[in-house]
Every structure is written in structure tokens, then in C-alpha cells.
Specification:
Strand order of the largest sheet: 3-2-1-4-5
CATH architecture: 2-Layer Sandwich
Order of helices and strands: EEEHEHEHH
Number of strands: 5
Structural class: alpha/beta
Shape: globular
Number of helices: 4
CATH topology: Nucleotidyltransferase, domain 5
Length: 146
């Protein structure tokens, strides 16, 4: 099944694609939004449709203690609006520390910090999608916590 990961932001939204059968995800693109991720809803829905996406994982920016703050509430509203534009399954996926993890991964690959911004959101979307696909696979197989 073709899948898409979405890392919401107020300046950029990272997108990733993946295949659930192989449980692998890869960076797709960065959408510039400059202030309001709701302006990109139609563009991201178009990308999902063009790629035959059947499953979308949207990053949920919970607070470190697991509580829902303003950013998480906004992401939940974005998901609801996005679901009206697509006919596929849309889930929220905990994205705590994905951006930090993406920066660390890029550093480990030798990329200079000043070059991170053009790909860090895509890599965060990969991490969000990878986590969601693994969780979905665990649900299908009956294995808890996978």
C-alpha cells in the first residue's frame, strides 16, 4: 500500500512517501507555507492523489510529557480538514523528537548544519511515516507495541 508522511510546520511542511509492504519510507518534497499550514491542504491532497496514497500519517507534536498543547491541537484540526479532501485513511503519529533525530541523522551523514533546512522536514516526515507504518503492521499482526 502506498503511504505518505506529513511533518507540519508554520514555514515548511515535509512530505515523505512509503510502501507499507516493505515498511520503507523515503523523502518526497518540502512545501513552503510561510505562516499557516492550512494554506497547503489542497496541494498536499493533490500530491496524495497523484501518488495513489492510501494511508497518510500526520505528525502530532505532543508536549514532552505527552500532553496536547496548541501545536498538537492545530495539527488535529489540520488532519480533520485534510480528511475532507482525500479518500484514504489518515492517522496521527507522535512526532516528538523527530526533528532532533533528523538533524542528528543529517549530521551523521556529514551534512553541514546550514544545509539541513532544505531536507530536515522531509526526513522528519520519513520518521513519522516509518513509525506509523510499523505501528500499523503491529496492529495487523497482533503484536503490541511494534
Amino acid at each position: 500500500m502506498k503511504c505518505m508522511g506529513v511533518d507540519l510546520g508554520h514555514k515548511r511542511i515535509g512530505l515523505a512517501l512509503g510502501e507499507s509492504e516493505a515498511c520503507v519510507a523515503w523523502p518526497l518534497k518540502t512545501v513552503r507555507v510561510e505562516g499557516d499550514p492550512f494554506f497547503a491542504l489542497d496541494e498536499i491532497a493533490r500530491v496524495a492523489k497523484e501518488n495513489g496514497v492510501q494511508f497518510v500519517a500526520v505528525g502530532l507534536p505532543l508536549n514532552m510529557d505527552g500532553s496536547t498543547g496548541p501545536s498538537a491541537k492545530s495539527a488535529l484540526r489540520w488532519k480533520k480538514a485534510f480528511e475532507k479532501r482525500v479518500s484514504c485513511k489518515v492517522v496521527m503519529s507522535d512526532e516528538r523528537l523527530t526533528t532532533t533525530g533528523a538533524h542528528r541523522e543529517l549530521e551523521s551523514l556529514g551534512m553541514r548544519a546550514k544545509n539541513h533546512m532544505r531536507v530536515v522536514d522531509q526526513l522528519s516526515a520519513v520518521m513519522i511515516l516509518q513509525s506509523a507504518m510499523e505501528k500499523e503492521e503491529g496492529r495487523k499482526s497482533g503484536e503490541p507495541g511494534k
